Amino acid sequence: DTGVSQNPRHKITKRGQNVTFRCDPISEHNRLYWYRQTLGQGPEFLTYFQNEAQLEKSRLLSDRFSAERPKGSFSTLEIQRTEQGDSAMYLCAVAGELFFGEGSRLTVL
Amino acid sequence: AQSVSQHNHHVILSEAASLELGCNYSYGGTVNLFWYVQYPGQHLQLLLKYFSGDPLVKGIKGFEAEFIKSKFSFNLRKPSVQWSDTAEYFCAVFSGNTGKLIFGQGTTLQVKP
């Protein structure tokens, strides 16, 4: 039990398509984080929320990326006009010590 | 800017050998320190954490780490590794000021049976 459920687990899409990932914390947590991990690298911070407020966005997050947490519970990460460089594992985490979900793997063809 | 450096990118050990993985961070304020492990094909799992108090912290599966504030280090140790410890290990630093966890680039540990 990771404390976080992420869907879909794997998404294969063609370049230029939009994709959306969802993160559902199993219990209430004020803070929710999104990270991206590519093969052989450590997770890179993308953005985080304090309840429904998005407090910080990494410079890694281009304008094609948008994240929301409308009710302070689940969160979505949308990537518009996907590029091959977006292929990665997208991780959601909650709480101060960050329990990570199993991730959503994106493959852009 | 906050950063984390893991010196060993790839470590190969035989079973029963002792392990020490280096981790140094750069941040002057109060930090919380973590080691995560990622087994092949699996998600990140927390091995151990340091928030305050005894700088020698013990985690799961016989791992421990020592926080040395003067050296900005948080090295991971295990006296005797097993084949099942083959995985990627990530050191991470959380700053309350920035509100985010920053990871090192990871160390791949391969334990030969």
Could you give the topology of this structure?
The complex is a heterodimer of chains A (109) and B (113).
Chain A: E1 4-7, E2 10-13, E3 19-25, E4 31-37, E5 44-50, E6 53-57, E7 65-68, E8 75-79, E9 88-94, E10 99-100, E11 104-108
Parallel strand pairs in A: 2-11
Antiparallel strand pairs in A: 1-3, 3-8, 4-5, 4-9, 5-6, 7-8, 9-10, 9-11
Chain B: E1 3-5, E2 10-14, E3 19-21, E4 24-26, E5 31-38, E6 45-50, E7 56-58, E8 64-68, E9 73-78, E10 87-95, E11 100-103, E12 107-112
Parallel strand pairs in B: 2-12
Antiparallel strand pairs in B: 1-4, 3-9, 5-6, 5-10, 7-8, 8-9, 10-11, 10-12
Quaternary assembly: heterodimer
User: How far apart lie the N and C ends of chain B?
Assistant: 41 Å
Largest sheet of chain B: 6 strands, mixed
Mean pLDDT metric of chain A: 90
Number of strands of chain A: 11
Distance between the termini of chain A: 32 Å
Strand content of chain A: over 45%
> What overall form of chain A do the CA principal axes indicate?
globular
Uncertain runs of chain A are none
Helix content of chain A: under 10%
Structural class of chain A: mainly beta
Structural Rg of chain A: 13 Å
Q: Runs of chain B with pLDDT <50, length 5+?
A: none
Q: How many alpha or pi helices of chain B?
A: 0
**Share of residues in strands of chain B:** over 45%
The largest pleated sheet of chain A is described as:
7 strands, mixed
Q: How big is the Rg of chain B?
A: 13 Å
Number of strands of chain B: 12
